[in-house]
Structures are given as structure tokens and as C-alpha cells.
């Protein structure tokens, strides 16, 4: 019988060659670094086949220098330039490769003639998990948490989530369930 090689983790990183492409690549590299054997497929999509050659050169100029700074052990990186509808080409490549993850950016830009962002359409049509990278002011690092709420969470081990001010009746409430060996019975949740 032939020896079966271990399955490699496959990632499709979709970039648009804008000033934000490096951020998407950084997140893709971070995901690849979490696996001992991984294949990274970096893809960009053009509208017309006549743009393929120029885009290949621009893509190589962006991606190849970034690879020089990585200490990879068992990675394989492939560059893809496709012509067509952006979200369809990204998700098609991921499906063809049976990718484990797609990494795509959402930076407030929309392609002309499209309702919604490319990232939203990729999420809606992808056959694998999708990591959407964005720049927003409401990221967890940018949000200032109420120090009293943080103390309530810590002191109650997550049983209570909000301080008295933020747990007013007119505010949303949160119910949480802690799973312990006594509540999880190998296939059913006991209430």
C-alpha cells in the first residue's frame, strides 16, 4: 500500500494589492505559523484577463519580500492571479484546494457595482472558515471597558457580567452557562 502523507493545513489569503494587503498577509502568516505543515495560497483577482501579467509582477513584488523575513520550517507558498468576480474566484480557489481557512480584508472599501463588501460575500459563499481582517476603532484594544464590570466578572468567575450601573433593567442581559464535568455527559448538556 502507498504511504499516505499527513494532511497539510491549507490557507487562502486574498489580497487586493492595496496599501492594506500587507495587513492581510501578516494575519495569514500568523495563521500559517500555527501549523507545522501548511500551504499558503495568496490570491488576487482582476476583472480582465488582460491585467494578469502586470498583476503577477505587482503581486510578486509585494509578497516575495515579506517571505524573506519569515523563518518557515515546512511551509509552501503559492501565488495565484485570477480573472473574474472577486468573491467567486476567492471562494472557488478555496474550494478547489479544500482549504481550511480563508483570510480576507475588510477595510471599508467596496468594489464598483457590488452590493456589500467582498469580505461579506466571501463569508456568505465560503466552504471553510473565514478570517476577516479589518481596521476599526471598535476593536477590543480600542474599547475602554468599565473597570467595575471587569471586577464583577473576575470576582463572580463569569457568573455576573455587569456592574450595578450597567445591569439596569432597561439594558440587555447576558445569560451564561459554565460547563463542568458534572454538566457535560459526553454528548448531552444537562441543565
Please give a structural write-up.
The chain is an alpha/beta fold and 191 residues long. The protein folds into two domains: 126 residues, HUPs (Rossmann fold, 3-Layer(aba) Sandwich), CATH 3.40.50; 40 residues, no CATH class. It contains five helices and five strands. Helix 3 runs parallel beside helix 4. The protein is extended, with a radius of gyration of 22 Å. The C terminus is likely disordered.
Give descriptors for this structure.
single chain; 191 residues; alpha/beta; Rossmann fold; 2 domains; five-stranded parallel sheet; 30% helix; extended
Overall, the morphology is: extended
Quote the CATH topology of the largest domain.
Answer: Rossmann fold
Question: How much of the polypeptide forms β-strand, as a percent range?
Answer: 15-25%
Biggest pleated sheet: 5 strands, parallel
Instruction: Count every beta strand, where a strand is a DSSP E run of 2 or more residues.
Output: 5
Fourth-tier CATH superfamily name of the largest domain: HUPs
Order of helices and strands: EHEHEHEHEH
Please tell me the CATH architecture of the largest domain by its name. 3-Layer(aba) Sandwich
Number of helices: 5
Mean pLDDT: 80
Q: Strand order, main sheet: write it out.
A: 3-2-1-4-5
Radius of gyration: 22 Å
Total count of domains:
2
What is the SS-derived class? Answer: alpha/beta
CATH class term of the largest domain: Alpha Beta
The parts where pLDDT drops under 50 for at least 5 residues are 109-114, 180-191
**Distance between the ends:** 49 Å
Percent of residues in helical segments?
A: 25-40%
Amino acid at each position: 500500500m502507498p504511504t499516505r502523507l499527513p494532511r497539510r493545513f491549507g490557507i487562502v489569503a486574498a489580497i487586493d494589492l492595496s496599501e492594506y494587503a500587507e495587513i492581510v498577509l501578516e494575519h495569514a502568516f500568523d495563521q500559517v505559523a500555527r501549523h507545522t505543515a501548511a500551504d499558503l495560497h495568496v490570491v488576487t483577482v482582476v476583472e480582465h484577463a488582460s491585467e494578469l501579467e502586470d498583476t503577477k509582477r505587482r503581486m510578486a513584488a509585494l509578497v516575495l519580500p515579506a517571505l524573506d523575513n519569515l523563518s518557515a520550517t515546512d511551509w509552501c507558498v503559492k501565488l495565484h492571479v485570477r480573472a473574474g468576480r472577486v468573491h467567486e474566484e476567492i471562494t472557488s480557489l478555496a474550494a478547489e484546494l479544500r482549504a481550511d481557512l480563508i483570510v480576507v480584508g475588510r477595510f471599508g472599501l467596496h468594489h464598483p457595482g457590488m452590493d456589500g463588501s467582498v469580505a461579506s460575500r466571501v463569508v456568505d459563499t465560503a466552504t471553510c472558515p473565514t478570517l476577516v481582517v479589518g481596521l476599526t476603532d471598535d476593536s477590543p484594544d480600542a474599547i475602554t471597558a468599565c473597570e467595575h464590570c471587569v471586577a464583577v466578572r473576575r470576582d463572580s468567575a463569569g457568573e455576573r457580567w455587569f456592574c450595578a450601573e450597567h445591569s439596569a433593567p432597561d439594558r440587555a442581559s447576558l445569560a451564561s452557562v459554565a460547563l463542568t464535568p458534572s454538566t457535560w455527559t459526553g454528548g448531552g448538556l444537562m441543565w
